[in-house]
Specification:
Order of helices and strands: HEEHHHHHHHHHHHH
Shape: globular
Strand content: under 5%
Number of domains: 1
CATH architecture: Orthogonal Bundle
CATH superfamily: MetI-like
CATH class: Mainly Alpha
C-alpha cells in the first residue's frame, strides 16, 4: 500500500499539468463550439446553438482554402525534410568520431523558437538589407519582395521551415543508423550486394521505424503551423499563406468569434487525429510489404 501511495505522489504533478494545460482548455473549446459566443456581436452572448457553427464551417470556402494552403505547405516540407535529413544522417553516420561535434551545431536552428526563426527569415529575405533578399534582387531571380509575392511567399515559408526542422529529422535518423546491427551488412557483403542494393534492402528496412517516427512527428507539427507564418506573412499576401491554424487564430482572436473559432479548432484536432492514425497504418503496411519483398 505504501508503495502505491508513493507512485501516486509521482504521477499527481503530471496529472495536474495535463488537466490544467490540456484537458480544461480542450473541454472549454469544445463547449464554445456549440455556442454563439462573440465579443463583437451583441446578440451572441454564449447561448447554445447546437451544430450551427459546424454547419457554417461546411459552407465556408475560406476554410477549404486554408486547408489547401496547409497541404501545399506540408507535403513539400515533409518530403524535402525527409530526403535532406536522410542524406545528412548518412553523411554523419560515416563520421562517427565527429558526430559529437556536428550534432550540437546542426541542432541550433531546431533549438530556437519558431518566432525567432520567422524573424530570421524576414530579415534575411528583406530586399533592402537582407543577405538573401539583396542577392535575389540583384541577380534578377526574384525582382519583388519575396514575402510580398503571391508566387514566392509560400515557398519562402517552406524553405525557412526546412531550415529549422531538417536537423531534427537528421538527428533521429542518425541515432537509428548508429544503432543498426552489423550482421545484416556482413551477410549482404558476403552475398555480393552493391552499395545501392545494401541501402534499399538492408539499411532502409532496418531504419524504417525511425523514419516513421520522425515523419509522424513532423506531420503533426507541420499541419498546425502558426508561428512562422504569422511572423513572416500574417497569412498574406491575401490568403496565399493562410494555413488552417492561422485562419482559426484570425477568427478567434482577431474577429473575436469564439464560438466559430472553437469549432475550427475542434475540426482541426479531429482531422489531425484521423490523418495521423491512417498515415501510421499506411506506413506500417508499407514497411511490412517492403520487409516481405526484401
Amino acid at each position: 500500500m505504501s508503495s502505491k501511495r508513493y507512485i501516486w505522489w509521482w504521477v499527481l504533478p503530471a496529472a495536474l499539468l495535463f488537466l490544467i494545460i490540456i484537458l480544461l482548455p480542450f473541454i472549454t473549446a469544445l463547449t464554445y463550439s456549440f455556442r454563439a459566443f462573440s465579443f463583437t456581436d451583441s446578440t451572441a452572448t454564449g447561448q447554445f446553438i447546437g451544430i450551427e457553427n459546424y454547419r457554417k464551417l461546411v459552407f465556408d470556402q475560406d476554410f477549404y482554402n486554408s486547408f489547401k494552403v496547409t497541404f501545399l505547405y506540408m507535403v513539400p516540407s515533409i518530403l524535402i525534410q525527409g530526403a535532406l535529413g536522410l542524406g545528412i544522417a548518412l553523411l554523419i553516420s560515416r563520421a562517427v568520431q565527429r558526430a559529437r561535434i556536428l550534432i550540437p551545431i546542426m541542432l541550433l536552428p531546431t533549438l530556437l523558437t519558431p518566432v525567432v526563426i520567422g524573424l530570421v527569415g524576414v530579415l534575411t529575405l528583406n530586399p533592402d538589407f537582407g543577405v538573401i533578399g539583396i542577392w535575389l534582387n540583384r541577380s534578377g531571380l526574384i525582382k519583388e519582395a519575396v514575402l510580398g509575392s503571391y508566387k514566392w511567399a509560400l515557398p519562402a515559408i517552406i524553405a525557412v521551415d526546412t531550415y529549422q526542422w531538417t536537423p531534427f529529422v537528421a538527428v533521429i535518423l542518425t541515432a537509428g543508423l548508429l544503432g543498426l546491427p552489423k550482421e545484416p551488412y556482413e551477410a549482404a557483403q558476403v552475398d555480393g550486394a552493391n552499395p545501392v542494393q545494401t541501402f534499399f534492402r538492408v539499411t532502409m528496412p532496418l531504419l524504417w521505424p525511425y523514419f516513421v517516427v520522425a515523419m509522424l512527428i513532423r506531420v503533426i507539427d507541420a499541419f498546425r503551423i502558426f508561428d512562422i507564418i504569422w511572423v513572416m506573412t500574417r497569412g498574406g499576401p491575401g490568403t496565399v499563406t493562410e494555413a488552417v491554424a492561422v485562419y482559426a487564430y484570425r477568427h478567434t482572436f482577431r474577429y473575436w468569434d469564439m464560438g466559430y473559432g472553437s469549432a475550427l479548432i475542434m475540426v482541426l484536432f479531429v482531422f489531425i487525429s484521423i490523418m495521423v492514425e491512417y498515415l501510421y497504418k499506411a506506413l506500417q503496411k508499407w514497411q511490412g510489404a517492403g520487409g516481405s519483398s526484401a
